[in-house]
Amino acid sequence: MATAPQKEAPLLSPELLQDWTADRAAADDQIHRSSQRAAASMAALIRPVVDPVPQASTYLSCCGLKLISPLQGLPSLFRAQTRHPLEPLTAAEISVAVATVRAAGATPEVRDGMRFIEVVLVEPAKQVVALADAYFFPPFQPSLLPRTKGGPIIPSKLPPRQARLVVYNKKSNETSIWTVELSEVHAVTRGGHHRGKVMSSKVVPNVQPPMDAVEYAECEAVVKDFPPFREAMKKRGIEDMDLVMVDPWCVGYHSEADAPNRRLAKPLIFCRTESDCPMENGYARPVDGIYVLVDMQNMVVIEFEDRRLVPLPPADPLRNYTAGETRGGVDRSDVKPLHIIQPEGPSFRVDGHFVEWQKWNFRIGFTPREGLVIYSVAYVDGSRGRRSVAHRLSFVEMVVPYGDPNAPHYRKNAFDAGEDGLGKNAHSLKKAISSTLMLTLRTSLGALKRLKIVFACMKRIMESYGSIRIGEQDGKIEAEVKLTGILSLGALQPGEVRKYGTTIAPGLYAPVHQHFFVARMDMAVDSKPGEAHNQVVEVDVKVEEPGEKNVHNNAFYAEEKLLRSELEAMRDCNPLSARHWIIRNTRTVNRTGQLTGYRLVPGSNCLPLAGTEAKFLRRASFLKHNLWVTPYAHEEMLPGGEFPNQNPRIGEGLATWVKQNRSLEETDVVLWYVFGLTHTPRLEDWPVMPVERIGFMLMPHGFFNCSPAVDVPPSSVDMDLKENGMVAKPCHSGLIAKL
Description:
Elements: H1 14-20, H2 24-33, H3 35-44, H4 56-61, H5 77-80, H6 91-104, H7 108-112, E1 114-121, H8 126-136, E2 147-148, E3 151-152, E4 161-169, E5 174-183, E6 195-204, H9 213-224, H10 227-235, E7 244-247, E8 264-265, E9 268-271, E10 290-295, E11 300-306, H11 323-326, E12 339-341, E13 348-351, E14 354-357, E15 360-367, E16 371-380, E17 386-401, E18 413-415, H12 416-420, E19 434-442, E20 448-456, E21 466-470, E22 477-485, E23 490-491, E24 501-505, E25 508-511, E26 513-523, E27 534-543, E28 556-562, E29 580-589, E30 595-602, H13 616-619, E31 627-631, H14 654-657, E32 669-679, E33 689-700, E34 720-721, E35 726-727, E36 736-738
Antiparallel strand pairs: 1-4, 2-3, 4-5, 5-6, 7-9, 8-10, 10-11, 12-36, 13-14, 14-15, 15-16, 16-17, 17-18, 17-26, 19-20, 21-22, 22-33, 23-25, 24-25, 26-32, 27-28, 27-29, 29-30, 30-33, 31-32, 34-35
Helix pairs in contact: 2-3
């Protein structure tokens, strides 16, 4: 009889749990009775492969798991499961999920109205990930196997993969969430067989899901075809609609008029000077004074006002972002080529979505909402083996509130993840000394979109706004956001000056604003997936009071405070005390007897400057503190709730979850770090803002017994650069810079 691995509430159904677990005694008995029959039975559960993993039995025997030599089928188990439970959905899986939901529509009208906002993997329970990593996929770590009194549990197969779909129906203005089980999914070929099963579906009332690119294009066409809009543009001297740019923005929530019973957008209007110029900066001429409200469900303009006639700003000669346009056609000529050479190839290895770089390893994922997701971050530490640092890292929200109280700028409070999607707007890198993987997204109408993610040398993984750098040789993990782009401008009346921004050019000004990012860090410091052995302490550096203990008046010390509950863990940065936080394992110590840990080190940061009653803070209560800590809960993923678009509910998401005031003293902790920047625009930010960096760092704090970088050898590469008569100086990490 199979036994459950834990007394806690099962994360899988009992039937499925019995199907893929068995205790040690039962497994041993089965093997001894009929090893060949057992091998055939287990091999039938999975797709066989030709290429078995060498020395697979060694991986299991080191954990005390018996493998009898006649069991020839078992080594192939390691490669037989073709998709790791955390790998993103394939194109075939997405197609199956979409087709399954479409087919489940009650009527043809319902099916025709479906728009697929998100199609993502249902991430499995952490115990499932542990079993996959232990037994079926790299890094093949049998110590992760759950244990009973009799020994490790032997899995026979992994549970089926599932997809989660957020569907908006244009016909009914309803949002629904579907879960589809995927089975026997093969590549899309002639005669290919696909099968999906709807496991659940529900309509979510009183919400609006994120917008998509198809809707944006439709909105622009509707506004341009609206006769009163054409007349208003004609008053401003514009009759060629090809010159006009309509930039739809979600309305947010400012009053009952913005309630989610309607799907609304309030576009901003811009006008080019040359419609046929591919590098024309269309955002350089904002059209002020026109108010448009679009019903995005029915794609009609429902409100329109030409409130005031503000002259179009003159064409700024410095508006475009090419040297030929802004510098008289002269590029600087003093930039010499820089070549990065790795004569023996890269130091990293990519196997599917599994990445190894020296002693680091982790998995890569991707979602339409978050973009890049990094799973199962671990460090191979000599005899201590593979030591976990984090289970899941990602940026989960980005909010950009503007500081001008005038229309339309007071409505500029974009939730770039929740109203749109960081992943949906990510772009493929074009060049890198790298390996690549392909990720697939689905557009709302069902078309597939392929996205190439590039692993560059120096182990940096980039997306449009942010990067998480895994793999510093000293054990650090760095999260960095590079802010760049084109300013969102407003038009000025002749002679007008606005104190809520910076005049950029005649008739143009850029409002002050802030950028906030939320990093969600599901930590697992020295923990197996799902273990509840972490805690968080806050560290402040204190100055010793003058007196007998401080006769030289030079004394200061670090003071720790355990964050015991969620409400106690709502914290802010304090640079005056060098405040930081340490995530510790309560059951693992280093050579000095101290608990092992990782330190969260803030970078430059800020808090919202808007008043506490600002409307956007109803939906972004998570911005009120720099740090939040919660115990892990599978459904708690998005700090503003799943549907912040037009959300009338106050404090949904993180601010509501922490009211439970759950204990944090020894648990599976999740850290939510909020960091931001206040942007007072400069002339140098025009026409394209130079990169500005903000971020934070995770660094080992007593995690290692000494510096993990001491074993990094000096480079042995020496290259004679005969073409310029110089000898390159060797650099560490095997990189040669040729200048």
